[in-house]
Amino acid sequence: MTSPLLSPAQAAAYGDLPAPTPHSDAELAALIGLLTAPGARITTVAVGHSRDPASGSAAAAFAEAWRALGRLPALAVVDWPESAASWLRAARRLTAGEPDAWVVAAAPLGWAQMSRRLRHSTGWDPARTYGFAALGDSRVPALAGPSTLQGMRGAAADGSTWTVDRGWVTHQLPARPPRTGPRGTL
Question: 98-126, pLDDT tens digit by residue?
């Protein structure tokens, strides 16, 4: 069995990745919208985050907004360091209880490492995983490896959404309210 951890050369291949920034209201609203969309059928979530202040704050804001909707509290809120020997303990805690979805606020490199560990050692499904803006960068699935993040979705700071598809992050514009003309709606 080979280790899912990135080698130092692999981790450095994409240069310095941006650090997470504080989440926006539009980002949080779009993320909640993805999880509560008609047909989503998500009742239980687990929340994971890296230990930087922006990710911890985003994870706490999501957990609070989720509860404010009358939803069950998160099954787990799990944090992990940006670098670790394996991330196995955090991966097992994040997947315990088999949530309907996972919500992630993390630094890109740490998430690439964590997602590799999740794929290698648990029943985690990236298609049931939703992320904050820092993870909506095509370097993240490239670092994580082929199909590791296939189907993961998330929200950007402007309220747009993104999806990982075949190793690329594609962005969708946020929904805009209909414009009205001088005689009513168009």
Answer: 999 999 999 999 999 999 999 999 999 99
